[in-house]
Write a structure and sequence with these properties.
Strands 3, 4, 6, 7 and 8 form a five-stranded antiparallel β-sheet that branches. The protein is 10% helix and 39% strand. It folds into two domains: 99 residues, Immunoglobulin-like; 33 residues, no CATH class. It is elongated and about 95 Å long. The protein is mainly beta.
Length: 155
């Protein structure tokens, strides 16, 4: 047995005894746009292999050669990437993957193909109220009132 192979087997057996392994495969959970001008993608990280693990979201746009890293990991919370107006293009397909890396190796999610026009979910209305009202002729009806979402342009 060659010394390189023996060393590799030794490292593998030590890492298995310590419960350490390469990270599990991350999974992109969802991408959502409230307005076709921005969007966020969230992922489930998978196993960290018992080691500190770094996650990075990378994307490219269909028909283009360049690959980019997530522009904003903070705005939408942990395990997410926010794309501001500057990074959002409608009518373009984004090819998105999440990479997990630790001392023992790396793992990459399956790619997710995202067209921003298909992931629009507007914010819900605010201050929704429902009242039961009665007309003079004793007919009853429901009166619903609400305010538009604070971050949506409704003009």
């Amino acid at each position: 047995m060659s010394s390189a192979l023996a060393y590799m087997l030794l490292v593998l057996s030590i890492s298995l005894l310590n419960g350490q392994s390469p990270p599990g495969k991350p999974e992109i959970h969802k991408c959502r746009s409230p307005d076709k001008e921005t969007f966020t993608c969230w992922w489930n990280p998978g196993s960290d292999g018992g080691l500190p693990t770094n996650y990075s979201l990378t994307y490219s746009k269909e028909g283009e050669k360049n690959t980019y890293e997530c522009p904003d990991y903070k705005t939408s919370g942990p395990n997410s990437c926010f794309f501001s107006k500057q990074y959002t293009s409608i009518w373009k397909i984004y090819i998105i993957t999440v990479n997990a890396t630790n001392e023992m190796g790396s793992s990459t999610s399956d790619p997710l193909y995202v067209d921003v026009t298909y992931i629009v979910e507007p914010e819900p209305p605010r201050n929704l109220t429902l009242e039961v009202k009665q007309l003079k002729d004793k007919k009853t009806y429901l009166w619903v009132k609400w305010l538009p979402p604070t971050i949506t342009d409704v003009k």
